[in-house]
Amino acid sequence: MRKTLIRRTIMATSATALGLASTAVLAHTGDLGHAHGADAATSFFQGGLHPLTGLDHLAAMVSVGLWSALTSTDKRSGHGNTRSVWTAPAAFAATLLIGALLGLGGLSLPGVEPMIAASVLVLGLLVSTRTALPSLAGGALVAVFALFHGLAHGAELAGGHAAAALAGMVLSTAALHAAGIALGLMMRPRGAGATASRWASRVAGLGVAAFGASLLTPALAAAF
Question: Whole-model pTM?
């Protein structure tokens, strides 16, 4: 009963955040320019650094891996399942690439920055509560968020050696997912340290959610 209530609360929060973010289309006035290096190697390096220097992107990508590791289990044994651990991160990375390519092609959707903020908020809540979603639902949720992260990156990487920068960004994203998974595996409940482990994930998730809320609130305030 308690798990059902938590799951419904998270999904309701997700839907609310998505709905509110979509109304904040006029709130984003930031400059999407991004400098490239003079050659492909430098652009690749700069693209790899990009997710590491944007705290919103970094928080979302690490959280995807962290949440996946905390909630993925084998239904038959109850032990971790490597394939299910990578379902959400793979969905995020693949859709991020698609979004970035669309952004490079000139596609623009409303509310990109509010949606990125909403993703940080929702993913933080998922980590904090360790709410498990079916593989398809979890993959679809992170894919929606990843599309907007990708569009933002694509707009920023337009021009210059964009393909090299994009390759570096995708590899960096995969590394952040892997780091999140490693943290999540360390936070799995084990023996006497189970309580401390659970509280560690709660605090980490709440911190990420609070950061997401701090990003989302100004955009919504500007829209209304």
Answer: 0.77
Token representation of residue 204: 């980490």
> What pLDDT, in 10s, does the model give residues 82-107?
558 999 999 999 999 999 999 888 88
**How far, CA to CA in Å, does 13 sit from each of 19, 46, 119, 220?**
10, 35, 11, 15
3-state DSSP assignment of residue 72: coil
Going by C-alpha positions, the residue among 141, 117, 144 that lies closest to residue 20 is: 117
- As a whole number of angstroms, the distance between CA 185 and CA 174 comes to 16
Tokens of 27: 């709130």
Query: By C-alpha distance, which of 216, 183, 208 is closest to 27?
Result: 216
Assign 157 to helix, strand or coil. coil
The CA distance from 139 to 133, in Å, is 9
Q: Cα separation of 146 and 161, whole Å?
A: 22
d(C-alpha 132, C-alpha 126), whole Å? 8
Query: In one letter, which amino acid is 195?
Result: T
The kind and range of the H/E element at 213 are: helix 194-223
Task: Report the alpha-carbon distance of residue 111 to residue 96 in Å, rounded.
Answer: 16
- Sequence-ordered alpha helix ranges (H) in 157-193: 162-186
Segment 123-169, tens digit of pLDDT: 999 999 999 998 899 999 999 999 999 998 887 776 668 888 889 99
